[in-house]
Amino acid sequence: MFKSLLPALLLAALPALADDCPSTLKFLKRKLNSEETVNLCQAYKGKTLLIVNTASYCGFTPQFHGLEALYSQYKDQGLVVLGFPSDDFYQEADDEKTTADICFTKYQVKFPMFEKLHVRGDDADPLYRILARQAGGDAPKWNFYKYLVGKDGKVIELFSSRTTPDSEALHKAIEAAL
Description:
By secondary structure, the protein is α+β, with helices and mostly antiparallel strands. It is built from six helices and six strands. It has one domain (20-177): Glutaredoxin, CATH 3.40.30.
């Protein structure tokens, strides 16, 4: 009898688990150049996040080095950098294999990179709609916009493309959030 009740109990518990998840993390996202998906809530709930819209052929693309350095420096304290390639500014590769090669081979990115998505406008991915709303309506105006998201899943601060990963202001904000 217990075995037959277990699936029903698990299904009944799912809405409670979903309600416990911040809106910024209520998504399944596919890893870059992979079929594997990640439940953002399960993977990153309670972490400090730096969510960045990236592009492979942008003047700011070398920021991958600095983002990886940030991730490496703070990951043991709970920071996760999440990269989302976007072609909204026409500077992303057409195919994910090329994007993955640029990220993982050329820039040796180890932080999580996900599927290409839209970050602004009518086609903006729901994740980016939430980020923009929480940041006072500010959608990315260019590639490498950085949303610092606190452990509670709410946007703390938005940093423009011109804010480099080694910026003192960004480091101070991350350290305060951790």
